[in-house]
């Protein structure tokens, strides 16, 4: 491979960034390690997951999958009983100091992932709906990333259940060929959503998160949420971003097809096509990610202080 001096420069930045986080040997008191010599080192793969989590948050905003609301998470690569997601902040504004390590068991905050001086109750308030993530990670051990968004394009299909959302194109196999299942809080028993509880459609506890996780079907990686948005599961954080973006595109394409006179049952990919395009899509994620990471770098609004402007790594979480 031909390596230009420019690439050496970027590699140097990445390397020194990792050194800083892994060894904690900088003399910046703001780093938050009262005792850097004894600070637990952050595994390199956790740093890389953090880099991808920030890029994911920024890219999802750039691509208008999320707005001020919505959140994405990644299972902790060093401990599958935990996951990383930001505390309650708009995804576009996420930095390393917004990333929290949470328990899969109960969505309780362990501490800031990249600041060992902020632990437990000192962690700023998390998203009320972090149970979407904890319960999906709990139910599906193979799932390594989760996205929740209010993407407007998918809402007609969450609300008009007579028209199931199906995969319309080769970039959206995550939708599946049988119709994305719809989660409707009105169908929940009193034991999950009592009359006395808020009926604001939010997934505010383990019971609601569990009911949502149980709505996934084998043929789809997304659950549409009536009057609310969607939840997407994936095998990596880059894939959950790719899926989220193309689920949004898929909904637009299907709605346009309906306007042209198509309808129910909706025409889309068949099972064989879904299976095969899902295999191919995995090989396309990296190319899309490189472009999207460059776009958020140039946009001026987003700060990935873990990656510091260096090119994203070829493989990700
Ligand atoms: C870590 O958290 C402490 C306490 O909030 C803060 O003073 C410090 O600036 C943080 N460290 C970094 C690197 O932001
Ligand atoms: C990440 O690092 C931890 C600690 O070194 C290791 O146990 C784990 O297997 C690594 N995970 C991945 C996905 O490489
Ligand atoms: C993994 O996370 C669980 C839950 O926080 C914790 O009890 C356990 O000690 C962790 N394991 C390691 C190896 O850090
Ligand atoms: C949450 O789960 C963790 C890991 O199982 C456990 O150690 C902790 O006590 C639980 N916290 C609460 C508040 O239930
Ligand atoms: C789908 O099938 C697999 C194995 O057959 C199972 O483990 C999984 O939980 C099923 N359900 C969903 C919703 O993915």
Descriptive labels:
11% strand; disordered N terminus; 317 residues; single chain; 36% helix; eight-stranded mixed sheet; binds 2-acetamido-2-deoxy-beta-D-glucopyranose; L-fuculose-1-phosphate Aldolase; actin filament binding; alpha+beta
**Which cofactor or ligand species appear?**
2-acetamido-2-deoxy-beta-D-glucopyranose
Uncertain spans, ≥5 residues at pLDDT below 50? 1-37
Question: SSE order, as H and E?
Answer: HHEEEEHEHEHEEHH
Mean pLDDT: 89
**What overall geometry do the principal axes of the alpha carbons give?**
globular
Task: Predict the CATH topology.
Answer: L-fuculose-1-phosphate Aldolase
Strand content: 5-15%
Oligomer: single chain
Q: Tell me what the CATH architecture is.
A: 3-Layer(aba) Sandwich
CATH homolog superfamily: Class II aldolase/adducin N-terminal domain
**Strands ordered across the widest β-sheet:** 4-3-2-1-5-8-7-6
Q: Return the domain count.
A: 1
Q: What is the percent of helical residues?
A: 25-40%
- Count of helical regions: 7
DSSP E strands, number = 8
Strand and helix map with partners:
Blueprint: H1 5-23, H2 44-62, E1 71-75, E2 82-86, E3 99-103, E4 109-112, H3 130-139, E5 145-149, H4 155-159, E6 182-183, H5 206-213, E7 222-225, E8 229-234, H6 237-259, H7 271-299
Parallel strand pairs: 6-7
Antiparallel strand pairs: 1-2, 1-5, 2-3, 3-4, 5-8, 7-8
The chain binds 2-acetamido-2-deoxy-beta-D-glucopyranose (5 copies).
The site of one 2-acetamido-2-deoxy-beta-D-glucopyranose has 5 residues, from loops.
GO cellular component, one term: cytoskeleton
Domain Class II aldolase/adducin N-terminal: 51-255
Keywords: Signal
């Amino acid at each position: 491979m031909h390596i230009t001096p420019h690439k050496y420069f970027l590699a140097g930045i990445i390397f020194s960034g990792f050194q800083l986080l892994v060894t904690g040997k900088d003399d910046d008191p703001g780093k938050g390690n009262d005792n850097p010599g004894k600070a637990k080192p952050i595994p390199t793969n956790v740093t890389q997951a953090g880099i991808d989590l920030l890029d994911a948050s920024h890219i999802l905003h750039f691509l208008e999958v999320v707005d001020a609301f919505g959140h994405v998470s990644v299972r902790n690569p060093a401990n599958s009983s935990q996951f990383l997601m930001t505390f309650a902040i708009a995804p576009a504004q996420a930095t390393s100091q917004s990333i929290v390590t949470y328990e899969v068991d109960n969505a309780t905050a362990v501490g800031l992932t990249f600041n060992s001086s902020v632990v437990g109750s000192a962690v700023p308030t998390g998203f009320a709906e972090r149970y979407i993530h904890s319960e999906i990670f709990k139910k599906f051990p193979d799932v390594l990333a989760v996205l929740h968004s209010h993407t407007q394009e998918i809402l007609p299909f969450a609300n008009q259940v007579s028209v199931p959302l199906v995969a319309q194109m080769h970039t959206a196999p995550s939708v599946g060929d049988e119709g994305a299942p719809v989660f409707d809080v009105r169908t929940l028993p009193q034991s999950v959503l009592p009359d006395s509880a808020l009926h604001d459609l939010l997934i505010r506890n383990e019971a609601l998160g569990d009911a949502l996780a149980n709505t996934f079907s084998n043929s789809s990686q997304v659950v549409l949420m009536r009057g609310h948005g969607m939840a997407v599961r994936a095998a990596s954080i880059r894939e959950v971003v790719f899926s989220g973006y193309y689920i949004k595109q898929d909904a637009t394409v299907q709605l346009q097809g309906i306007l042209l006179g198509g309808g129910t049952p909706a025409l889309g990919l068949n099972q064989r096509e879904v299976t095969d395009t899902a295999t191919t899509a995995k090989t396309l994620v990296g190319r899309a990610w490189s472009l999207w990471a460059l776009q958020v770098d140039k946009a001026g609004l987003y700060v990935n202080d873990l990656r510091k402007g260096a090119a994203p790594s070829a493989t990700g979480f």
